[in-house]
Design brief:
six-stranded mixed beta sheet; 10 strands; ABC transporter transmembrane region fold; four-stranded antiparallel beta sheet; elongated; alpha/beta; 574 residues
């Protein structure tokens, strides 16, 4: 399903609200004729007849019509607000899912920008600014009514409407580029602020505040300059349109007076035509006044559509049974878009259910990328990753997550209790949460927290130490007794007690028949693995039984040491 179809379906689901708003707009614009009709009758009938009862009845009818107009305007506003709520309920979850998927697969950094875009579009498209859009189609009807009063007045009103429309189109042309550039700078500025808040400690510790502030202010000055320039142009054009509308109404009144003197129309028709012209031109003036907001809404909707297009909804997939944990990686290649050198290339290995694999290698060898590929977080550029014969990417993500455990290198916990984080914010029994914590060796540590499992950990786990966060995240990875577990540097923040608990946890996983892949720089944690995969520069340097690979590494290390000793000796002889 394309983004256009998704947005089209969402707007189609709100069609009842839009049809109702159009119907109310019809009633509102018809009732606007009450005032010119009232004036026409007063000037042409009441003043000539001197009838007080006729004046009273006309005034009462005008009062009822205007009260009904005001009521319809209120109802239309409420209907549009409800359409915004309906649109949000249809798109917000989908946009959030697309943002998370894009951030996971591509590493995008928009953060909450597209959700803010959706909110901005909803607020503008269902707020007062859009009322002029619903009223604008009725302007030709008002012009046609003026033609009925007198053809010359109709021609004049047509010329007036054309002038205002030309000014409106010029306004759009003059502001389009400025607003687009301003929005781009604003998005970058928001991203800088978010990154700064996430890394406030580093900024304070390393004295980076001044340089980051200067960088942010440079973007902000650009934003303000663009916005000021666009605002000045918009104000100038808005002023010109307001002057034109008022002058055209005065011109209509003066030309109408000429026709009255010429006895072509009555005085009542003169005033009625002037009022109707003002109503015909009012939506155009309102549209120009709200042009900045309407451009913002259009650009926001375009960004939402682009995100939905780049992250289409997953196709419906048949549920697969719980995997046994057989892993097969075949000719795996991963290339980051825009970078020629592959991060991973030609990776081939297989694991039987219940086997444990240790992945080692220097920094930037591609270990964490391999972990993401094994979990389906990143899609392969070529090759495949299969669990029990099924492509990891073909699994329903919710179902796969229930059977798999993942501990990333960068620990991310969520605001809530320890128990909520362990059970992945789903519905779970206390027994299941306790079982995961005990298997991870984190139960006693959690009981030592101020409120135990009900301890609020704060945003990103701010109330916990690095080691505590890692142990809670390990319990989260083991929740539900997964058949397949990937642990990326699970001991990077652990002390001796935590590392001993991790070793015990790995033994329990093997006893339970869980397939485990553990990435670590510390060989001691890999004492109980069956096989070791050694990566270097994204390629396989070695793969095989643990003892064989470690012996080979020792031999290589000894040979490298001997070569270095000989080289130093030769340098000494020379």
């Amino acid at each position: 399903m394309t983004s256009g179809h998704e947005l089209g379906r969402a707007f189609h689901a709100c069609r009842a609200h839009f049809i109702a708003a159009l119907a109310f707009s019809l009633g509102i614009n018809l009732l606007y004729l009450a005032l010119p009709i009232y004036m026409l009758q007063v000037y042409d009938r009441v003043l000539n007849s001197g009838s007080i009862p006729t004046l009273a009845m006309l005034t009462l009818a005008c009062l009822i019509a205007l009260a009904t107009l005001a009521a319809l305007d209120i109802v239309r506003a409420r209907v549009l607000v409800r359409s915004g709520l309906r649109l949000d309920s249809l798109l917000s979850a989908r946009v959030l899912a697309a943002m998370i998927e894009r951030a996971a697969h591509v590493g995008a950094t928009e953060r909450g920008q597209v959700l803010r875009d959706l909110d901005a579009f909803r607020q503008i498209a269902t707020g007062p600014s859009v009322h002029a859009v619903f009223d604008a189609p009725w302007a030709p009807i008002y012009v046609a009514i003026i033609f009925l009063i007198h053809p010359l007045l109709g021609m004049l009103s047509l010329v007036c409407a054309a002038v205002l429309l030309l000014l409106a189109f010029y306004n759009e042309y003059a502001l389009k580029r400025s607003f687009a550039a301003g929005n781009e700078f604003a998005a970058r500025s928001h991203a800088t602020i978010e990154a700064s808040l996430r890394n406030a400690e580093v900024i304070q510790a390393l004295g980076m505040l001044g340089s980051l502030t200067r960088r942010w202010l440079a973007d902000r000055v650009s934003i303000l300059a663009l916005q000021a320039g666009a605002g000045d142009r918009n104000a100038s054009i808005t002023g010109a349109i307001k002057f034109s509308r008022l002058f055209m109404q005065a011109l209509m009144l003066g030309f109408g007076a000429y026709l009255v003197i010429d006895r072509s129309i009555t005085a009542g028709a003169m005033f009625a035509g002037t009022i109707i012209l003002g109503r015909a031109l009012q939506p155009v003036e309102q549209l120009v006044g709200a042009w900045r907001q309407l451009l913002t809404a259009r650009d926001s909707l375009a960004r939402v559509a682009r995100l939905l297009h780049e992250s289409p909804p997953p196709a419906a997939r048949m549920s697969l049974p719980r995997p046994r944990g057989k892993v097969a990686v075949e000719n795996l290649v991963y290339v980051v878009p825009g970078i020629k050198r592959p991060v991973l290339h030609g990776i081939n290995f297989g694991l039987e259910p219940g086997e444990a694999l240790g992945v080692i290698g220097p920094t930037a060898a591609g270990k964490s990328t391999l972990a993401r590929m094994l979990m389906g977080v990143r899609r392969p550029s070529a090759g495949s990753v299969r669990v029990d014969g099924a492509e990891v990417a073909s699994w329903n993500r919710d179902e796969f997550g229930a059977h798999a455990g993942y501990l990333p290198q960068d620990i991310e916990l969520f605001s809530g209790t320890v128990a909520q984080n362990i059970c992945r914010f789903g519905e779970a029994s206390s027994e299941a949460i306790l079982a995961a914590a005990e298997k991870a060796g984190a139960h006693d540590m959690i009981l030592g927290l101020p409120q135990g499992y009900e301890t609020q950990i704060g945003e990103f786990g701010a109330h916990l130490s690095g080691g505590q966060r890692q142990r809670v995240a390990l319990a989260r990875a083991l929740f539900g007794s997964p058949a397949f577990v990937v642990l990326d540097e699970p001991n990077s923040n652990l002390d001796g007690e935590g590392e001993a608990a991790l070793v015990t946890c790995l033994r329990r996983l093997r006893e339970d028949g869980t397939t485990v892949i553990i990435i670590s720089h510390r060989i001691a944690v890999l004492n109980d693995v069956d096989r070791i995969l050694q990566l270097r520069a994204g390629t396989m340097e070695a793969f095989g039984p643990r003892r064989d690979v470690l012996n080979r590494m020792r031999q290589v290390h000894v040979m490298d040491g001997a070569r270095a000793t000989m080289a130093r000796a030769q340098e000494g002889d020379s």
